[in-house]
Design a protein that fits this description.
This protein is α/β, with parallel strands linked by helices and 124 residues long. It has one domain (4-123). It is built from four helices and four strands; from the N terminus they run H-E-H-E-E-H-E-H. Strands 1, 2, 3 and 4 form a four-stranded mixed sheet that branches. Strand 2 and strand 3 form a beta hairpin.
């Protein structure tokens, strides 16, 4: 499930878990969220994500699916955030991992279409 603007509130995550969504796609950092001290999967995944954010910042997305126990999360780039300047670093970071790109189909323009074509060509 991908939320509008790739953002989930704590309440939205709880609702998604309650109705059984296994995968949640988010756009940026792990906040807002509640800390689950009694859930080892949550603590491990949150630690991985937090350390990644400290090292790479919010410019790049965590390249693997994280298992938080009650659901799994994948982090996405909006196509508007990928350009010729950062494409190499993004593709290198996500090589042999997951690269998830989101876009509103009404907003897709020629430049973004060319970026998608270039990404597809390079990952084949």
């Amino acid at each position: 499930m991908v939320a509008p603007h790739d953002r989930f509130s704590k309440e939205a995550i709880e609702a998604a878990e309650k109705i059984g969504y296994e995968y949640i796609c988010r756009g940026f950092s792990p906040l807002p969220r509640e800390i689950q001290w009694n859930n080892p999967k949550y603590l491990i995944s949150y630690s991985k994500l937090f350390l990644f954010l400290l090292k790479k910042g919010r410019k790049y997305r965590y390249p693997k699916i994280l298992n938080f126990g009650k659901h799994k999360e994948i982090y996405s780039y909006r196509i508007q955030h990928i350009n010729k300047n950062n494409m190499n670093k993004i593709l290198k970071l996500h090589k042999n991992n997951v690269l998830y790109i989101t876009n509103h189909y009404l907003n897709l323009n020629k430049k973004e279409t060319e970026i998608i074509k270039e990404i597809i060509k390079r990952v084949k």
